[in-house]
Amino acid sequence: MPPTLPRTAREIRLAEVPSGLPGPEHLTVSEVPLPVPGAGEVLVRNRWFQVFPSLRTLIAGGVPGTPFPPLRPGDALFGPAVGEVVAAPAGGDLRPGDLVAHFQGWREYAAVPAAAPLGDALPDPAAHLASGATAYAALTRVARLRAGETVLVTGGAGGVGSLAGQIARLLGAARVIGTTGSPAKAGRMTAELGYDAAVLRDGGPIGGRLAEAAPDGVDVVVDTVGGEQLQAAVAAARPGARLVVVGTLAAQLSPASGGTTAPVELDAFQLIAKNITLRGLTGVDDEIHTEWTERFGAWLRSGAVTFPHTRIAGIERAPLALRELFEGRHVGTVVIET
User: Fold this and answer.
1) Which domains, and CATH codes, for the chain?
2) Coil, strand or helix: which one is 176?
3) Contact 206/178 with Cβ under 8 angstroms?
4) Residues 89-108 pLDDT 10s
5) Residue 175 to residue 165: CA distance in whole angstroms
6) pLDDT, tens digit, for every residue of 179-228?
7) What is the DSSP string of 39-80?
8) What residues have CB less than 8 Å from 27, skipping those under 6 apart?
């Protein structure tokens, strides 16, 4: 191991399981021995990692059947990251300085399986942490958006939503509507993120305001929120509408919720009478991810899309960034730069 590497590194661990939303008081910055790569692994210095709302669910105990294990006190948090290779076995495809994507964020150094380097597919390496692949898969593979249709995205200023509106526009949607709880975010959605209208959630029923924004109904829904907003989407759906559920922010961001269930009552008569398709989506396969990365890179370089994100410097600021995410303070993806 090169002598310039430190003996120890910092990582963020769960100190205790909170009764409500996790915050800095429930996490700890721990000093640990530098990881030692095993067979087929490389050592990386994390450059960026993502702060994402599903950590609430993992900290609360997880959900059976989902791809990620629950977090218990003493465990290091994890999540999407981009790391720079600092040590790699001779004869492999990776060299020091290469960037790789992996899922061992929330730490300064990680031993991760050797994978293909990221290269220059995206002009900004941190953009590999964007959640656009989920939005892209929902629109192209599940809902199969057609030109001229009306699209509704709940949580339109979040990590998925801030790209879903732009993608829908590029795929030919005639009208794109998003929901948000912040007037400032609503302004950015219509000015920067591809939305024709932003429906503001202000504590009252949202259904009437959605009907005003989409008087002829909606054809495609990308739902990142659930709860009342999913109910309103079903009410606004046109015959043959396709609804794709990709998140449960209503439950994950609520202090009153346990974080591991997201119950919502839907009108089955509406589903039947309108022949509505309702599907969930978790994760994307390699084929879709590759296709998305190619298109995302081309769109970024041409200026057709932006990567809305908040970049926060310093791993020690990650616990506060998680609390701020739950409080809805940021637009787009929240990225920690280490």
Assistant:
1) 8-129+308-337 (3.90.180.10), 132-280 (3.40.50.720)
2) strand
3) no
4) 988 889 999 999 999 999 99
5) 10
6) 999 999 999 999 999 999 999 988 778 999 999 999 999 999 999 999 99
7) TTEEEEEEEEEEE-TTHHHHHTT--TTSSSPPP-TTPBP-B-
8) 12, 13, 14, 15, 77, 318, 319, 322
